[in-house]
Design brief:
CATH class: Alpha Beta
Distance between the termini: 15 Å
CATH superfamily: Aldolase class I
Number of domains: 1
Order of helices and strands: EHEHEHEHHEHHEHHEHEH
Strand content: 15-25%
Helix content: 40-55%
CATH topology: TIM Barrel
Strand order of the largest sheet: 1-2-3-4-5-6-7-8
Number of helices: 11
Largest sheet: 8 strands, parallel, barrel
Bound molecules: 2-phosphoglycolic acid
């Protein structure tokens, strides 16, 4: 059964107290069998969230692909496994652009996370100049081919895709439902061509980029939009709960 997911990307925000307060309110939300909430938290709150966890999945926003070693300031997947973190976010445009993450590094991180049996939310999406040239579909296909499509038919089942047009992230300028649904349909078709109907039909494809309680219902009602990856609007429990209720 395809899962409907609301994933919060808290980025570099919140105090521990605020994070725990939002998390506790999320734990009270009633979910149907096919619905899931994931919180991608700063590392420093992961342990505290795991202590409070009932059903909300706890995810990390990043990790270093080496298992251990002399990498001052870095966090490895083994640290995440030690805390029993269930999910990781890979390929976010802020990591690609602000931290120069290459396709090669993203692919390696995907392999490490797959090998360690973590759920992965893989982000892709085009910058504004690519959208303006109407090259967004080939751009996103190239990202999936470079980062993802080397996985085999079993491994790909650990992946959910988040389509996040870069021009919509944190800008208040969300994609129209038509733009979003067209891209989601295209992504599912690419997955189908590579992995077949069953896998593509089961895959959750989330929309991210200025998704909020006002636009989430319309977006999530689209056939190929299975929830959202929420940044700014995930920092307030009330708004996030409203978004979840529109799943
Ligand atoms: P936003 O961020 O909801 O603040 O646009 C989404 C994201 O970066 O994942």
């Amino acid at each position: 059964m395809r899962k409907n997911i609301v994933a919060a990307n808290w980025k570099m925000n919140l105090t521990k107290k605020e994070a725990l307060s939002i998390f506790e309110q999320l734990e009270e939300v009633q979910l149907k069998d096919n619905q899931e909430i994931i919180v991608f938290s700063p590392y420093v709150f992961l342990d505290a969230l795991k202590q409070k966890q009932k059903k909300v999945k706890v995810g990390a926003q990043n990790f270093h692909p080496a298992p251990h070693g002399a990498y001052t300031g870095k966090v490895s997947i083994n640290h995440l496994l030690d805390l029993e973190v269930e999910c990781v976010l890979i390929g976010h445009s802020e990591r690609r652009m602000l931290f120069n993450e290459s396709d090669e590094l993203i692919k390696t991180k995907i392999d490490v996370a797959v090998e360690n049996k973590l759920e992965i939310v893989f982000c892709c999406g085009e910058p504004i100049d690519i959208r303006n040239k109407s090259s967004h579909c080939s751009y996103v296909l190239q990202q999936m081919e470079a980062n993802l499509f080397h996985l085999d038919h079993e491994q790909i089942k650990q992946i959910s895709i988040a389509y996040e047009p870069v021009w919509a992230i944190g800008t208040g300028k969300t994609a129209t439902t038509e733009q979003a649904e067209n891209m989601h349909r295209f992504i599912r078709m690419c997955v189908e061509q590579r992995y077949g109907f069953e896998i593509s039909n089961e895959m959750s494809i989330l929309y991210g980029g200025s998704c909020n309680a006002t636009n989430s219902s319309e977006l999530f009602a689209c056939e190929n939009i299975d929830g959202g990856l929420i940044g700014g609007a995930s920092l307030k429990a009330e708004e996030l709960c409203k978004i979840i209720s529109s799943l």
